[in-house]
Amino acid sequence: MTAQSNQPPAGAEYLKAPGRSIAEDDSRTAELVAEVIARVRAEGDAAVRDYSIRFDKADLDSFEVTAAQREAALDALDPQTRADTEFAIANVRRFAEAQLGSLTEIEVEVLPGVHLGHRNIPLERVGCYVPGGRYPLLSAPIMTIVPAKVAGVGEVIACLPPNAHEAMVAGCHLAGADRIFRIGGAQAIAAMALGTETVPRVDKIVGPGNAFVNEAKRQVFGPVGIDQLAGPSEIFILADETGDAEMIATDLLAQAEHDVRTRVGLITTHRPLAEAVLAEVERQLGDLSTAETAGAAWRDFGEIALVSDEAAMIAYSDIIAAEHLQVHTLDPKAMAKKLSHYGSLFIGELSSVVYSDKCSGTNHTLPTMAAGRYTGGLWVGSYLKTVTHQWLTPEGVAAVAPPAARQAATERLEGHRRAAQLRLDRMQG
């Protein structure tokens, strides 16, 4: 993880520096989340209900959304919104199916009689956290639930805040959630990780959320799997003299309106473009309806860095490892092949992050805070476990037993040596 700095990288110049670091003290968050998890472990549904009243001002008779309530949410969905949601679901499903098709199970004979292999086994039960957010983010359930269903997960549980828009319930239903619960925040993560009287324990929890959700995922990890620890959203754009200032500014602000802590930036080799983008961002903020959020993100975490050449642009980009990385250069496909660290790549100025955010098919649940240096985003493989197996013939035992026994003896592990030798002795006896 790299901390954002107010100093530009070596050889670069800030035309717009970030106002402050994205890092913040979260000790109080960690303490509160630990309390929530402990109470849910001890009290189950009673603790969940108490925290729902306390944090979400919601006292529900039942946490689970009934079949009738699902249908009501679906009926209330605007027809065009439903059609657009189904369009997005279809694209995400097609891409997930293609990804699944690329995964093969293997079995190879590495030595005569020594057969090794692996299988891709779907998880039994997955919990998908669906954030409420400032607006009804209709794409959120699609990105977590659809790939799980394509992977063959036995049961997909969705949790969303009690005050989430009814359209989000419809989205969970259309995406294929087997059960939907109106539980939000850290208590939802705790309920899915530990299980309660009404919420089943899951094997893995996926999906983004606020700082409390993120911290809860961190604390429950181990007995239950998680997809990743998500920080505030990020977008960086790499551009040369061919960049379009209006388009770049528009894409930066589109991401900035997610949250006041969104990190947005331009890395360019062309000073006139940098200056034009700086002016264009300020101009667009003047009539952007979400300027209160986007403007705060731009002020505090926005940056424009001027670098000397393409190599410096690539080097700085790879240090940041941005969640979303757009390439606006003369030959964007050639540039794309030189980039190694990012969550998802958008090649050419026609490929906006917003398309992936909503409906084009790639997943928008992506690594942030430089985690793109070691992992990719959520995908169909996130819902599979690749497990190995082996089987040996007598010829295989004859090949591997002697070196295994000798190595065990060298390590002074007598039990290991005996286990290695026993089968060979019986074959030779």
Query: What structural class do the secondary elements suggest?
Result: alpha/beta
**Global shape:** globular
Which CATH class of the largest domain?
Alpha Beta
Helix content: 40-55%
Which architecture of the largest domain does the CATH hierarchy give at level 2? 3-Layer(aba) Sandwich
How many helical elements? 16
Portion of residues in beta strands equals 15-25%
Overall mean pLDDT: 95
- Structurally, the number of domains stands at 3
Distance between the termini: 58 Å
CATH topology title of the largest domain: Rossmann fold
CATH homologous superfamily caption of the largest domain: Nitrogenase molybdenum iron protein domain
What's the alpha carbon Rg, rounded to whole Å?
A: 25 Å
Q: Report strand order across the widest sheet.
A: 1-11-10-9-12-13
Describe the structure concisely:
This is Histidinol dehydrogenase homolog. This protein has 429 residues and is an alpha/beta fold.
Description of the structure:
Helix 13 links the parallel strand 12 (324-328) and strand 13 (344-347). The protein has helices at residues 27-43, 45-56, 67-75, 79-101, 139-151, 166-175, 185-194, 211-220, 245-256, 271-285, 291-301, 310-320, 332-336, 353-358, 394-410, 414-428; strands at 13-16, 106-111, 114-122, 125-129, 155-160, 179-182, 204-206, 225-226, 234-239, 263-268, 302-306, 324-328, 344-347, 384-392. Helix 4 (79-101) packs parallel to helix 5 (139-151). The strands form three sheets. It has a six-stranded mixed sheet, with helices on both faces. Helices cover 46% and strands 17% of the residues. The model has no long low-confidence stretch (mean pLDDT 95). By secondary structure, the protein is α/β, with parallel strands linked by helices. The protein folds into three domains: 13-22 and 232-361, Nitrogenase molybdenum iron protein domain (Rossmann fold, 3-Layer(aba) Sandwich), CATH 3.40.50.1980; 27-103 and 123-228, 3-Layer(aba) Sandwich (Rossmann fold); 393-428, no CATH class. NAD(+) binds at residues 129, 187, 210.
